[in-house]
Design goal:
The protein has helices at about 1-15, 60-65, 275-290; strands spanning about 30-35, 45-50, 70-80, 85-90, 90, 100-105, 125-135, 135-145, 155-160, 165-175, 185-190, 195, 200-205, 210-220, 225-230, 245, 250, 260, 265-275, 305, 310-315, 315-325, 330. By secondary structure, it is mainly beta. A 5-stranded mixed β-sheet has the order 5-6-2-1-21, with no helix packed on it. A 5-stranded antiparallel β-sheet has the order 4-3-7-8-20, with no helix packed on it. Strand 17 and strand 18 (about 260) form a beta hairpin. The longest helix has 16 residues, at about 275-290.
Length: about 350
């Protein structure tokens, strides 16, 4: 009798199954803009195409995303006479390991010069306009470069939460100006970082590239205050930054050889940006903080691009070069080279 009942209920259950096919809408093709301008350096723009969430990924996907056939990319501001000061951006390839970018011509700026003169077109307290023509569309954006606000100081101290004594944190004190709204963006990268291969008993310098996002937000809760903060290292696999930096230390190889590993050297980029740009970068930080959590509330990034996606950001940065040596304090600002801004 039990066997008959099992067969009966199985027939009922299986007869209730219905195959459902979801006809998901195809994502509309849009231009994704990643554009930047900061004082002293030429503007540059990276263009890609958006991709559907369920689109297949193969070895050609990465290269196929880049847009190299824009009809025109121009940047301008209005001078004191109300006239446009225009720069036409050209597609340039082969700048180290950068993807194809649109920037000024090599006759307008010497990218190979170790110490080029400041690029006078790009200055703080100006609004810069971007216009891109591609695929019969006109994509526009604008951004304002605020005044830079430096940190009071930075220092290196041994991490209280790491399991190794050579693991360090970068801490800082910042005094927020009370007379202006400040929207802060922080990026960092290790210009020097030695990895260790136990099998070959070798150490190799593997610097970060490009600059990694640390945090972004407004001063709404700390306006006019002076406070202490710290800059965690962005993780290699993405997600919310919580990493440490390495001071000088040694590692032991399998044969007992002791190998010296030099300290990390870190570039901190501490920026003021306008509010529309901040909303984009803050959203990116929040999405990274979910770390792929399927129960996190989904949200689209806020874009300041009209007719496309992405962001056009005017940075007003202060750079600091921080060697990871315990109890080292940094007050001096660092003058970046062209390769440092990427």
């Amino acid at each position: 009798m039990k066997n008959y009942l099992m067969i009966f209920f199985s027939l009922i259950l299986f007869s209730c199954q219905e195959e459902i096919t979801l006809d998901l809408p195809q994502s509309a093709s849009k231009l994704v803009v990643e554009g930047y301008i900061e004082p002293g350096f030429p503007p540059y723009v990276i263009l890609t195409k958006n991709q559907g969430y369920f689109d297949p990924i193969d070895p050609n996907t990465y290269n196929d995303l880049f847009v190299t056939d824009a009809e025109s990319v121009i940047v301008w501001y209005y001078n004191d006479n109300g006239e446009k000061e225009i720069r036409i951006l050209e597609r340039i390839e082969g700048l180290d390991s950068l993807p194809p970018i649109y920037t000024v011509s090599v006759s307008d700026y010497d990218f190979l010069d170790e110490n080029p003169s400041p690029y006078e077109f790009s200055k703080a307290e100006r609004t810069y306009y971007l216009e891109i023509k591609w695929n019969n569309d006109t994509i526009t954006a604008q951004t304002f470069i605020p005044k830079a606000t430096p940190l009071d100081s930075l220092w290196v101290e041994q991490s209280e939460t790491a399991d190794s004594t050579y693991k360090c944190d970068i801490r800082a004190v910042y005094s927020d100006p009370a007379d202006q709204q400040n929207n802060i963006l922080i990026k960092s990268k290790r210009l020097q970082h030695y990895t260790f291969n136990e099998d070959s008993c070798k150490s190799k310098n593997r610097p970060d590239f490009p600059l990694q996002l640390v945090d972004a937000g407004s001063d709404i809760l700390i306006n006019g205050e002076s406070f202490e903060t710290y800059f965690p290292r962005p993780r290699d696999n993405g997600g919310f930054p919580n990493g440490k930096y390495n001071a000088y230390h040694t590692s032991e190889c399998k044969d007992g050889t002791i190998l010296e590993r030099d300290k990390d050297i870190v570039l901190i980029k501490f920026c003021q940006i306008d509010e529309p740009s901040m909303k984009f970068w803050r959203g990116l930080v929040r999405q990274a903080g979910t770390n792929g959590n399927p129960f996190a509330e989904p949200a689209n990034l806020v874009s300041n691009i009209n007719g496309g996606l992405g962001v056009w950001t005017g940075y007003s940065p202060v750079y600091y070069l921080v060697p990871i040596v315990k109890d080292t304090t940094i007050f001096e600002q660092y003058t970046p080279k062209i390769g440092d801004i990427f």
